[in-house]
Specification:
The complex is a heterodimer of chains A (115) and B (113). By secondary structure, chain A is mainly beta. Chain A is globular. Chain A starts with a strand and ends with a strand. Chain B has 113 residues and is mainly β. Chain B has no helices and eleven strands. The chains are: A mainly beta (115), B mainly beta (113). Chains A and B meet through strand 5 and strand 6 of A and strand 4, strand 5, strand 9 and strand 10 of B.
Chain lengths: 115, 113
């Protein structure tokens, strides 16, 4: 069975705080991809990152960083020095090679950043 | 600039009506998807298509059907709308092979009265 768990339903922080969004996944496949998407209040999902199961290197993009650990089946997302514009719903998703096309999404974490 | 467009941002229909939600992508993508998004449930896959005239059921296909007559267009059909189909509907597309990022449309918020 495939499953993506985002245990944090809502997180509230004050601007400039660092925040980590957790994502834990389950899969029986050895080849899979993990994704993070951002859904701002406007509603359109925006792709942030894709990671394949063979690449455990951490990724940094500006204030965003991702920590992929196969040993704990986690793909966590950290925002450094958060800003009000980071307020959104963030989704983690999993795709297995053999599932052909579909993404399995977690239920999302709503991040609220106040000034 | 890549783009997925959906025919309506907001739609209000009555119970029992037949409803068409249209999605068009201009990226020549093979795969197209329809999701439903509800509070606390995240995104759930209704149907997807990996080629013209091909379709596969997702996790919650009951009460829905789809049509893909052209590569760029994927329609979601509610044969007889019911109040429990009030939701946000999101269309997405991706390249063939299934491992690339999916590009999403802006969504259609459907209310069934």
């Amino acid at each position: 069975a495939q499953k993506v768990t985002q245990a944090q339903t809502e997180i509230s922080v004050v601007e400039k705080e660092d925040v980590t969004l957790d994502c834990v996944y389950e899969t029986r496949d050895t080849t899979y991809y993990l994704f993070w998407y951002k859904q701002p209040p406007s509603g359109e999902l925006v792709f942030l990152i894709r990671r394949n199961s063979f690449d455990e290197q951490n990724e940094i993009s500006g204030r965003y960083s991702w920590n992929f650990q196969k040993s704990t089946s986690s793909f966590n997302f950290t925002i450094t020095a958060s800003q009000v514009v980071d307020s959104a719903v963030y989704f983690c998703a999993l795709s297995e090679v053999r599932s052909r096309t579909a993404l399995i999404f977690g239920k999302g974490t709503t991040l609220s950043v106040s000034s | 600039d890549v783009k997925v467009t959906q025919s309506s941002r907001y739609l209000v229909k009555r119970t029992g009506e037949k409803v068409f939600l249209e999605c068009v992508q201009d990226m020549d993508h093979e795969n197209m998807f329809w999701y439903r998004q509800d509070p606390g449930l995240g995104l759930r896959l209704i149907y997807f298509s990996y080629d013209v005239k091909m379709k596969e059921k997702g996790d919650i296909p009951e009460g829905y059907s789809v049509s893909r007559e052209k590569k760029e267009r994927f329609s979601l059909i509610l044969e007889s709308a019911s109040t429990n189909q009030t939701s946000m509907y999101l269309c997405a597309s991706s390249l063939g092979g299934g491992l690339g990022e999916q590009f999403f449309g802006p969504g259609t918020r459907l209310t069934v009265l």
